[in-house]
Amino acid sequence: MLNDRRNVVAEKSVAFSLSIIRFTEVLEQDRKFVIAKQLLRSATSIGANIFEAQNAESKADFVHKMKLAAKEASETEYWLLLCEKSESYPFDPALACHLEELIRILSRIITTAKR
C-alpha cells in the first residue's frame, strides 16, 4: 500500500478491521467483552498477516503468512457465527459478507502462489 501498486487484499483487510473495531465497540457497550476481545484479535490479525506477507523472505514464507491470515479469517468466522446464532448478541451480516470475500481472495492468492 505504500508503493504505487494497488494491493486490493491489503486494502480490504484494513477496511474489514475498521468495521470490526466499530462492531466490537458495540459488543463492549452491550458488555459482551469476551467475544469482543476474541473477535477483535482474530479479525485484525488477518490484515496484520497480510501486511507481513508483503515483506516475506521467500515464496514459502509468503504462502505461510497468507495461510496464517486465512486461519485467522476462519477463527473470525467462528466468532461472528456465535454472534449471529446467539439471541442476546448483535450481528451485522455485512461483516460476514466482507469476511467471505476476504476468505475467497486469500484462497485464490494461496492457490496461485503455490503453483
Short description:
The protein has 115 residues and is an all-alpha fold. The protein has helices at residues 8-29, 33-53, 59-85, 93-114.
**Which second-level CATH architecture applies?**
Up-down Bundle
Mean pLDDT: 95
Task: Give the low-pLDDT segments.
Answer: none
Helix content: over 70%
CA-based gyration radius: 15 Å
Give the number of domains. 1
CATH class: Mainly Alpha
**Main sheet summary:** none
Shape: elongated
Q: Could you characterize the architecture of this molecule?
A:
The protein is mainly alpha-helical and 115 residues long. The protein has one domain: 23S rRNA-intervening sequence (de novo design (two linked rop proteins)), CATH 1.20.1440.60. It is built from four helices and no strands. It is elongated. The model has no long low-confidence stretch (mean pLDDT 95).
Sum up the structure in keywords:
single chain; 115 residues; mainly alpha; de novo design (two linked rop proteins); 80% helix
Reconstruct the topology from this structure.
Layout: H1 8-29, H2 33-53, H3 59-85, H4 93-114
Helix pairs in contact: 1-2, 1-4, 2-3, 3-4
